[in-house]
Design a protein that fits this description.
The protein is α+β, with helices and mostly antiparallel strands and 424 residues long. Helices cover 40% and strands 17% of the residues. It is built from 13 helices and 14 strands. The strands form four sheets. Strands 5, 6, 7, 8, 11, 12, 13 and 14 form an eight-stranded mixed sheet that branches. A two-stranded antiparallel sheet has the order 1-3. It has a two-stranded antiparallel ribbon with strand order 2-4. Helix 10 runs parallel beside helix 13. The N terminus and C terminus are likely disordered. The structure holds adenosine-5'-diphosphate and magnesium ion. The site of magnesium ion has 5 residues, from helix 7. Magnesium ion (MG) binds next to helix 7.
Length: 424
């Protein structure tokens, strides 16, 4: 039964409200009421979901994720000793006081399959937080995964590239990009410590290219294919061959694809042979110091393994790309003109990459490959295959702006694939 708001108002004025938040009885009552509310709502939700469809399953998955988050977060908050709950705002001597108030979910919302996406802490200080979990249901069920700092390259490989490797057998192309600011771990991911020059002794350190090699040779044996390795770099708008002393490479367009004129494609007989060939390339790439001004951080490195079945036109291509640092060097007023120009060129290439991915996802007839060297070089990566984007982020406050900008870039790319419900 409902009571009109105006009918309740006089009662409120005759009884002075008490603010006895410490009363244990009141607290027990409040908990009881909350439990009862939850029970009722669970019932409503159950009724609404009597005939479960796919959307219901997605909703449940989201709810489970949010609960998981809440559980972990609450444990953390509980462990924070000495927190003050519900300390009066007015005790703080500040001219503007702000509070956020979340109301309980209504029966009407619960009946419409609404679910709670706001997580709060009641602590006023210093951990006053409200998290809003924005559910993004993807039509193509594409997923994103977050790896924490304890995940090694072995886990990254097993979760991202490895499941895509069998596609090579079907003549499809597989590519993996590492995107992020300088120092965020792109090179570590693709090539291992010190860009493949260091001694990667543990499974967690071995670069993805090494893992990829091991698997590709297995696939090539099954297919009766030969494996050709090439390794190139785009620096300052020029494409150079890292397996041939940085010799410049010309891109020639022929029948809709690009030929790399002058590129050395080495036939690799085994995994070990492939790694030996690559040792030359990684040494060439990392001769400069690995500080943020080094060439390697301002260049895109592209590692390609192509499988060709002799006497047929069957080929498939695996490409790993260590992109140039995504930080906006252009914005740095203390940077030299040359560095700013370079920064602008890198931004342009990363934007071109994003545009191509967007065009591919909307199945546009016009994919602007030609707008940039990077996208020309990568043209084959996008044709009929799988494209994996790894977004590398550094953990600290020192790079918060770069991290935000990277996450925005990744979100955009995710949205493209969601918007069209397809993609490759
Ligand atoms: P980027 O290529 O994005 O500029 P790097 O791969 O060179 O960044 O990483 C910067 C530094 O952080 C390097 O010293 C690297 O070894 C270290 N590093 C990056 N990722 C990891 C990781 N997952 N585990 C341990 N060290 C890492
Ligand atoms: Mg690097």
């Amino acid at each position: 039964s409902r009571t009109a708001p105006h009918a309740r108002a006089p009662a409120a004025t005759t009884t002075a409200p008490t603010l006895d938040t410490n009363s244990p009885l009141k607290e027990i009552e409040r908990i009881k009421a909350a439990r009862e509310l939850r029970r009722k709502q669970a019932e409503l939700i159950r009724e609404a979901r009597a005939g479960k469809d796919e959307t219901d399953m997605m909703v449940e998955e989201y709810e489970a994720k949010i609960h998981q988050f809440r559980h972990a977060w609450m444990q953390w908050v509980e462990s924070w000793k000495g927190r003050r709950t519900a300390q009066a705002l007015a005790e703080w001597d500040a001219p503007i006081q702000v509070c956020v108030r979340k109301r309980p979910i209504s029966n009407k919302e619960a009946g419409k399959r609404g679910f709670d996406i706001i997580t709060t802490t009641t602590a006023v200080h210093p951990h006053a937080c409200a998290f809003l979990h924005e559910p993004k249901l993807s039509l193509d069920r594409s997923r994103s995964i977050v790896f924490d700092e304890y995940a090694g390259n072995d886990l990254i490989f097993q979760t991202t590239l490895q499941p895509a490797i069998p596609k090579l057998k079907e003549g499809k192309n597989v590519s993996l990009f590492c995107y992020g600011a300088t120092g965020s771990g792109k090179t570590h991911t693709v090539f291992g410590p010190e860009g493949g020059r260091g001694s990667a002794t543990t499974a967690a350190d071995i670069g993805l290219y090494h893992y990829a090699c091991s698997q590709v040779f297995g696939v090539a044996a099954e297919m009766g294919a030969d494996v050709f390795v090439s390794f190139l770099e785009i620096y300052s708008g020029k494409v150079v061959d890292l397996l041939n002393n940085r010799q410049p490479i010309n891109l020639l367009e022929q029948n809709g694809s690009f030929l790399f004129q002058g590129l050395r494609e080495s036939h690799a007989a085994s995994v070990q042979h492939c790694l030996q060939i690559m040792a030359v390339g990684t040494a060439t790439r990392t001769t400069q110091a690995t500080d943020s001004n080094s060439t390697s951080s301002r260049s895109h490195a592209i590692f390609r393994l192509e499988m060709r079945v002799p006497n047929t036109s069957a080929t498939s291509l695996l490409t790993l790309i260590d992109l140039a640092g995504s930080e906006r060097g252009v914005d740095n007023p203390s940077a030299s003109a040359a560095v700013r120009r370079e920064g602008a060129a890198i931004n342009k290439s990363l934007l071109a990459l994003k545009e191509c991915i967007r065009a591919l996802h909307v199945n546009s007839n016009y994919v602007p490959f030609r707008s940039n060297k990077l996208t020309c070089v990568l043209r084959d990566c996008f044709r009929a295959g799988t494209c994996i984007m790894v977004l590398n982020v550094a953990p600290t406050n020192l790079t918060v702006e770069q991290t935000m900008s990277c996450l925005h870039y990744a979100n955009r790319i995710k949205e493209y694939s969601h918007a069209t419900g397809g993609g490759n």
